[in-house]
Write the structure tokens for this entry.
Amino acid sequence: MLGNFTFANPTKLYFGDDSLQYLNDELPKYGKTVQLIYGGGSIKKNGIYDAVVAILKANGKTIVEDSGVMPNPTTEKLKEGIEIARKHNVDLLLAVGGGSCCDYAKAVSVSVHCNEDPWEKYFIRFEEPSCKILPVGCVLTMVGTGSEMNGGSVITNHEKHLKIGHVFGEEVMPKFAILNPKFTFTLPHKQMVAGIYDIFNHICEQYFSGTDDNTSDYLAEGLMRSVVHSSLIAVENPQDYEARSNIMWCATWALNTLIAKGKTTDWMVHMLGQAVGAYTDATHGMTLAAVSLPYYRHIMPYGLAKFKRFAVNVWGVSAEGKTDEQIANEGLAKLEAWMKKIGLTLKISELGATPEMIEGIADATLILKGGYKVLERPEIVQILRESL
Ligand code: NZQ
Ligand code: ZN
């Protein structure tokens, strides 16, 4: 049975290969000073920076540069962004990049007018903002996180060895997001496939939970099939607009809160992956890929009916003459074969994790209770060891 819920998503999306021009429609809604947030420079190489700056100038905006947002943005960088916004009395935070830039922009947006330490307030105590929130807009260049249409913000604290996400409410979600699939054409293969697995796993996290008949699970299966189909085309031909545009759209729908409505969710692969990330600073999607198979094999007996359904409905496994367990295992074998085929990293040791880190990573793993099995600490250690 569908549980009770409220659904609202205020982010306005502009999708397509002409979508950047709609920045002209959005900019007049905000004040004069724009904090232009971007990463390590990919947008300068592929021309997106010049195109965005031209539109900002044409709209009479004062541009305040905030570059160098690293993958897995840190507490130190967050402090820097807050200072920039305060100093220049910024009116709009415009993130041009991937999830890291969008997440960072959201964290800045809830901190500029707040006197408390944002790490403690939002990422340790999980409080809601009690101050004015700056508006955020996104021009997306990397696909995977869904950050362009959700309230998620993940920040890494290297000193404390923690990587924690806060899912803010609708007032923190981007006011608008510009999604041009062609902007993703310059992504290196590794980032493209890490993003693809991030999408797939977001769907899994919301699918592998509950035993009821729930429309969200049917939506999830359709999205998973589309991601797998398009990924195989994109890996062969990264310039295939049809595949890249479908991947981009799946990413947004995988984590814009829709498919979690009315159901419980798991999110333990993300908790494990984030803890690995806190120790290794590895690419988010790869950390998920490297812990997924040991985790899913571990919880499969507790959610057998859903794993069987996953095998049949997502991977086309024939159920004839097989036990439920055989069917479910075949589904996970198909998942593994697909992950290998597109070139994902399946071992945390290849991401920099060492046997000595396992206890610390286990300590950094938040245990959530929505999945088929609430993990005990020894199970986390076991899964991490199997992922090495
Ligand atoms: O920094 P630049 O030079 O721009 O390079 C970036 C970066 O190195 C590069 N890149 C981006 N667009 C490109 C490009 N290179 C060439 N051409 C382009 N068009 O890609 C690299 C990765 O970018 P990043 O933004 O870090 O990747 P992603 O979008 O995967 O974001 C990862 C962050 O989002 C968090 C992750 O934990 C991680 O911190 N997440 C956010 C979520 C949310 N808001 O709901 C949920 C996710 O589960 C995730 O946790
Ligand atoms: Zn993710």
User: Anything to note?
Assistant: DSSP finds 15 helices and eight strands in the chain.
